[in-house]
Design brief:
Order of helices and strands: EEEHEEHEEEHHEHEHEHEH
Number of domains: 2
Number of helices: 8
CATH topology of the largest domain: Nucleotidyltransferase, domain 5
Strand order of the largest sheet: 3-2-1-4-5
Strand content: 15-25%
Number of strands: 12
CATH class of the largest domain: Alpha Beta
Length: about 280
């Protein structure tokens, strides 16, 4: 059994990967358990995630062959965890391997939304970091800290669900009477470019989420078009944001790029770390 641990800046995810019988090489491994924890520092977070995995699933230490760690906090850990051989995995490689495993295919563009956003061209023999943005989940919470009465993510989402973008965003319809190219009157001309005095917290919350996912979505569109593909696999904690998905769906309608959301996408990097041991 291999344990893969993704030590993020705010959340740590751990998975166990175990060999099982299968008809082909790609079928011989599967993710069988997944857990998530939060802690203030990398060591506490990693050991806590490992301990929770062991205790909650009655795993014997002797069954664990290796621990593979990745993520922002991985560099702060030295040596082996609990006497088990422990290796570090490059985070971009882990995202690429995990994304291909989750998508069940190769030659994909992956947009991994975490505190920031990374965009990766993943192929079996080549995993390339195309770029990304500092805009991500951290942006939402950082702006909320100054603009809203809550920094709790669920609270931000509750506010945004009742928001009206017309109170904060400047739309084409505010400045033009006709369509511009393929953009209609509801298309964004400037995020927060309107910002009426009557704007409520709900409107500001929605404006923040809309801006973040429009930036992420457009970078993803450019990456997909540069690689002549019409699909983007979305992973990371930010992949399961219903309002964010709605923003990306609007971009699909305009640019004909489909966004795909694998099951358990938040665990993609941890899965990739675990799978990287055997040479995916």
């Amino acid at each position: 059994m291999i344990i893969g641990i993704d030590i993020g800046s705010t959340t740590t995810k751990a998975v166990s990967v175990e060999e099982v019988p299968g008809s082909g090489t790609d079928d011989r491994r599967r993710v069988i358990r997944k857990i998530k924890t939060r802690a203030e520092d990398a060591v506490t977070s990693a050991t806590g995630a490992f301990g929770k995995m062991i205790v909650e699933n009655n795993i014997r230490m002797t069954d664990i062959e290796r621990i593979m760690i990745t993520g922002a906090g991985a560099g702060k850990l030295t040596g082996n965890l609990f006497g088990i051989p422990t290796e570090k995995v490059d985070e971009i490689r882990a995202i690429g391997i995990g994304g291909m495993f989750q998508a069940r295919r190769e030659n994909i563009i992956i947009t991994n939304i975490g505190t920031g956003t990374a965009i990766i061209d993943a192929q079996r023999d080549s995993i390339v970091h195309l770029g990304g943005s500092g805009v991500g989940g951290g942006t939402i919470q950082g702006l909320a800290k100054k603009l809203l009465p809550t920094t709790d993510f669920n609270g931000i989402m509750e506010l945004a669900a009742a928001g009206d973008l017309g109170q904060v965003d400047l739309r084409l319809g505010d400045i033009m009477d006709t369509w511009l190219s393929f953009l209609n009157r509801e298309s964004t001309a400037s995020n927060f470019g309107k910002m009426l005095d009557s704007a409520r917290n709900e409107d500001i919350a929605l404006g923040i989420i809309n801006m973040v996912y429009q930036v992420i979505g457009m970078l993803s569109v450019f990456a997909a078009k540069s690689r002549n593909t019409g699909r983007v696999v979305v992973t990371g904690n930010g992949s399961d944001n219903p309002l964010g998905k709605r923003v990306l769906a609007e971009l699909t309608g305009m640019y004909k790029i489909e966004f795909e959301y694998p099951a358990d996408a938040a665990y993609t990097t941890a899965i990739g770390a675990g799978l990287s041991f055997a040479g995916f």
